[in-house]
Request: fold
Amino acid sequence: MIRFAAPFAAAILATGLFAAPLSAEEKSMDRTVTVSATGSVSAAPDEATIQTGVTSEAKTARDALSKNTDAMKTVIAELKTQGVEARDIQTTQFNIEPVYVYPKEGQPPSVTGYRVNNMVGVRVRDLDKLGGVLDQLVTAGANQMNGISFDVSKAETLKDDARKVAMANAKRRAELLATAAGAEVGEVVQISEETSFQGPRPVVFAKRAAMAESVPVERGEQELETRVTVTWKLK
Reply:
């Protein structure tokens, strides 16, 4: 029967290879090895979401709202003309706020007008049209561009390849540790998974002047990653 002193047991736990404690009857428990490993695949995005909209100002809240409403109707109509479906246009922000002017120090601010901000998230499913959509948004009156995020529509399916790689990496490491300990890997006891993706940073447009007649957009690639933690019995 094998016993481990506390320092040695802690060292083995740190590597992921450990023996379970003995029972009160001094019967040996199943020995296990637990390993975490990652797997990843690269994929080119095939969709994008634009955060865009219109900010309008006027002397009264009513006038600011009417001005903004007319401008947003034009923007949304142009999006649909560009082939963007209604299901891919969603309001993400709407607010009305007073516009303050701060006079001399010690005097209270005064309201000089009102500002209305209306933002929508726009999903573009054909990235070949993205540059044209950006250009036409500005032409139609959009004066807010808060960024673009790219997505892989079939990310979940593509992650299956990453899962296979992660499992293979985990098993290889488990076998290496088990061999070093004079044991063999047996059946799987437990599997858990974490998934994530690393994509290109959103493209941010700060000014309307930055939008040229032909807007170049680079989609890059996204890294789809999964992490598995697997426990095997040792023989």
In short: The beta strands are 17-18, 32-43, 47-58, 89-101, 110-124, 144-151, 185-198, 222-234.
